[in-house]
Amino acid sequence: SYQNATQLMESSQQVRETNAVLQSLTDISATLTEAESERWRYVLLQAPEDLKRYETAIQTLNDEVSQLQAALSSTPEQQQHVNTLKTLITQRITLLQKSLNQKANQPPQTLSVQFKESQDAIRQVIHQLRTTEEELLQTQMQRSQSNLQVRMLIEVLGTVLTFIVLLGVYALLYQQMMKRHRAETLQQKLAQQKELSEMKLQFFSMVSHEFRTPLSLIVGSAQLLAESLKPMLDPMKLKNLNRIQTSAKSMTQVLGDMLTLARADAGRLEFHPSWVEIQSFCLNLIEDSQLFSESPRSIKFTQQGNITHAWVDEKLLYSILSNLLSNAIKYSPPE
């Protein structure tokens, strides 16, 4: 846009300079005509006022030629024409000075011919100056118009590209805003889930605490009854007491698993590793699984390697493996 405005200003300046040159040529022609007219009036009337006006016109003519020469100093071709015009005007003024000494009714034939030749030469040079200046102006205007069209096209493309860039920046900002909104929403959901998990943990902790005491009483009472009444009861009734113990222990295990899952969901599951003798741990686990199982199953224990101890959390490992064994027993065929 700045270049377009600068080009328009240069074009306007060029037009003003050309108009000034053309006006100077017109003024030179008019002043030269005025000088010749005042010269003839003086020759005819011999009035001092006419001679004074003639001399003023000659001085004005010299000033106008100097101004024209300064205006066209940047154009070599036009400068050459101006020099030629200046020479012709000087010769014309010389002829006018010679004719002042002649009488009006007796003009020399040679001066008349020289006047005619000088006038034609001056007109021809002025015409060449006008034509050249108009051609230069036309060329300059065509070039300016072409450059202006190119710059206008570049300006339009620049505006479109700027709009695309701004649209891209807006899209990026909108995308970042949406990401931030999704992150905040996700953070809120996580906070809600964490709060819900804490509530579930508190609930299961309370339920586990409330149920463990009666279940412990049930298991203890069943064991006491089985031990005290074992000599007096038949095996079928003792089996029912053992079933009570097994069910109570199974319920205690379920409560422990629920509490463990609630702690894991809330991120409150604690890990306390220690050295555990693996073989005894696995045998006790198998015994408990067979004891809690409603239908007897044969569980095979195979030991590989010579490592006897492991650095594990015994409670967590027991919960994991007991769940795996209980599912295996539940969904496996009898054999």
Structure description:
With 335 residues, the protein is an all-alpha fold. It has helices spanning 2-45, 48-71, 76-99, 109-229, 235-265, 278-292, 314-330, and strands spanning 274-277, 309-312. Helix 2 (48-71) packs antiparallel against helix 3, helix 3 (76-99) runs antiparallel to helix 4 (109-229) and helix 4 runs antiparallel to helix 5. The radius of gyration is 60 Å and the shape is rod-shaped.
Oligomer category: single chain
CA gyration radius, whole angstroms: 60 Å
Output mean pLDDT. Answer: 78
Strand order of the largest sheet: 1-2
Strand content: under 5%
Shape: rod-shaped
Q: Determine the N-to-C terminus distance.
A: 92 Å
Strand and helix map with partners:
Elements: H1 2-45, H2 48-71, H3 76-99, H4 109-229, H5 235-265, E1 274-277, H6 278-292, E2 309-312, H7 314-330
Antiparallel strand pairs: 1-2
Short description:
With 335 residues, this protein is mainly α.
Note the main attributes of this structure.
335 residues, mainly alpha, rod-shaped
